[in-house]
């Protein structure tokens, strides 16, 4: 085995790993700044969530507030939050595909965000 070729391949792999790490850092910063809005109840409940899964704002149409039936409001807030979470997951998948060139991540590989 030619040691020069092996060292060159290892060097290329290290360079690619560093580039991917840089792109992952950029993606983490982009996710922290990115926000999505989930909604439910025909838009009467809105939840704004960051790409880091932090709730930034909740908006509830006053017509939905019924003190005698809080479960409906609770369910709608939960549905709006879940809608936002699905949008974040789709955004992450799209950006990760850009980084990996469409190659799937190995099973069990966990992202740092």
Describe the structure.
With 113 residues, the chain is α+β, with helices and mostly antiparallel strands. It has one domain: Nucleoid-associated protein YbaB-like domain (Ybab, Chain: A), CATH 3.30.1310.10. Helices cover 55% and strands 16% of the residues. It is built from 2 helices and 3 strands. Strands 1-2-3 form a 3-stranded antiparallel β-sheet. Strand 1 and strand 2 (45-50) form a beta hairpin. Helix 1 (3-33) packs antiparallel against helix 2 (70-100). The two termini are 40 Å apart.
Question: Care to give the gist of this entry?
Answer:
The chain has 113 residues and is α+β, with helices and mostly antiparallel strands.
Order of helices and strands, N to C? HEEEH
Record field, number of beta strands:
3
Structure classification? alpha+beta
Which homologous superfamily in CATH is the superfamily?
Nucleoid-associated protein YbaB-like domain
Strand portion: 15-25%
> Gyration radius, to the nearest Å?
21 Å
Task: Order the strands across the largest sheet as they lie in space.
Answer: 1-2-3
Unreliable residue stretches: none
- Assign a percent range to the helix content: 40-55%
Q: Could you give a short account of the major beta sheet? A: 3 strands, antiparallel
Count of the domains:
1
Shape estimate: rod-shaped
CATH class: Alpha Beta
CATH topology: Ybab, Chain: A
Query: What's the rounded overall pLDDT mean?
Result: 85
CATH architecture: 2-Layer Sandwich
Give the end-to-end Cα distance, rounded to a whole number of Å: 40 Å
């Amino acid at each position: 085995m030619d040691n020069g070729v092996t060292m060159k391949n290892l060097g290329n792999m290290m360079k690619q790993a560093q580039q991917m790490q840089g792109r992952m850092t950029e993606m983490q910063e982009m996710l922290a700044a990115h926000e999505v809005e989930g909604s439910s109840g025909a838009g009467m409940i809105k939840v704004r969530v960051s790409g880091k899964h932090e709730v930034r704002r909740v908006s509830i149409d006053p017509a939905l507030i019924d003190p005698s039936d809080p479960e409906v409001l609770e369910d709608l807030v939960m549905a709006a939050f879940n809608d936002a979470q699905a949008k974040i997951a789709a955004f992450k998948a799209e950006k990760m595909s850009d980084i990996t060139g469409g190659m799937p991540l190995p099973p069990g590989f966990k992202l740092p965000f």
